[in-house]
Amino acid sequence: MKEYATFAGGCFWCMVAPFDQLTGIISIRSGYARDEQIASEAKQESEYVEAVQIVWDPSQITFEELLNLYWQQIDPTDSAGQFSDRGPSYRAIIFYHNEKQKEVALDSKRKLAQSGRFKNPIVTPILPFSSFYEAEEQQQDYYRKNAFHYKLYKEGSGRTDFLTQHWPKDRSYLKKCLTPMQYFVTQENGTEPPFTNLYWNNKKKGIYVDLLTGEALFKTSDQLPSHTGWPIFKRPILYGNIKKVPAQHSTALKSKEGDNYLGLLLTEENSEYYQVNSAALRFIPKEKLKEEGYEDFLILF
């Protein structure tokens, strides 16, 4: 059994990755949904907005849960576009496919308005689904195919800062897509067991990225032999992608965009070392960098 959900939230590049992580998602396609409201007001034959169409299994995830994640990706107080993308084609809209979805969406919108999370009114329209056509293949899964450019775009658009400001702690959805250890480490500042984790003794060439956001963090040529049982690095690939957060008797390391816990900064003989949990990382071998959208980092090898 499967159902469809269609969401517009500005540039469709940014609307795929969050849902891709959820259990119960069958497929996500970027494309263009017809906005009947704009078409009617403008007296045009049609008007389309950038959107994603999600095919999902209702036995594993509910429409309400999809909506909860949707609100966390957009500015629901903006009716004229989303972040740096302006104009009707970038409006945020929830398209319902049946009356049940309409009821759930209206209730979800009402709850968000009553929560007081936003000072301005919630203006995201809830409209009947009309039609959807897919974008070109090069636009599909853009966050995977062009990971480096995607990260620059998302951060430069203002979306990342806005979402971090308004949804700083609401990450319960991550329990559906992370293992208990990954959640414990990245969201609860936990520490995995030494010597039994994935990368403490990795010998392959490649880079390590943030498990959730894909931010490039470390490269294997900077990985040191570990006597502690966790991966240790001399330096990050980009210092700007790592945050140093003072903690009791130590300095914690977090990813800049995701604000996910990574590990600890160690100091020894006036030198700094980055001790990181494997559970916070995803390793991309050198031979797969181009395939995964990290071609710019091949120059490091």
CATH topology name of the largest domain: Peptide Methionine Sulfoxide Reductase, Chain A
CATH superfamily of the largest domain: Peptide methionine sulphoxide reductase MsrA
In CATH, the architecture of the largest domain is 2-Layer Sandwich
Radius of gyration: 21 Å
> How many domain modules?
2
**Biggest β-sheet description:** 6 strands, mixed
Strand order of the largest sheet: 7-6-1-3-2-8
For this structure, the quaternary state is single chain
Enzyme class: oxidoreductase
Function: Has an important function as a repair enzyme for proteins that have been inactivated by oxidation. Catalyzes the reversible oxidation-reduction of methionine sulfoxide in proteins to methionine.
GO molecular function: peptide-methionine (R)-S-oxide reductase activity; peptide-methionine (S)-S-oxide reductase activity
Active site: 11
Could you explain how this protein is built, in words?
- The protein is of the alpha+beta class and 301 residues long.
- It has two domains: 3-172, Peptide methionine sulphoxide reductase MsrA (Peptide Methionine Sulfoxide Reductase, Chain A), CATH 3.30.1060; 180-300, Metal Binding Protein, Guanine Nucleotide Exchange Factor, Chain A (Beta Complex), CATH 2.170.150.20.
- It is 23% helix and 28% strand.
- The protein has eight helices and 17 strands.
- It has helices spanning 17-20, 36-42, 63-71, 99-115, 142-145, 147-156, 159-166, 180-188; strands at 3-9, 25-34, 48-56, 81-82, 85-86, 92-96, 126-128, 132-134, 206-210, 216-219, 223-224, 232-233, 242-247, 250-255, 261-268, 271-276, 281-285.
- The strands form four sheets. A six-stranded mixed sheet has the order 7-6-1-3-2-8. A six-stranded antiparallel sheet has the order 11-12-16-15-14-13.
- Strand 6, helix 4 and strand 7 form a beta-alpha-beta unit.
- Helix 3 crosses helix 4.
- It starts with a strand and ends in a 16-residue tail after the last strand.
- It comes from Priestia megaterium Q3.
- The active site is at 11.
- Has an important function as a repair enzyme for proteins that have been inactivated by oxidation. Catalyzes the reversible oxidation-reduction of methionine sulfoxide in proteins to methionine.
- Its EC number is 1.8.4.11.
- Residues 171-286 form the MsrB domain.
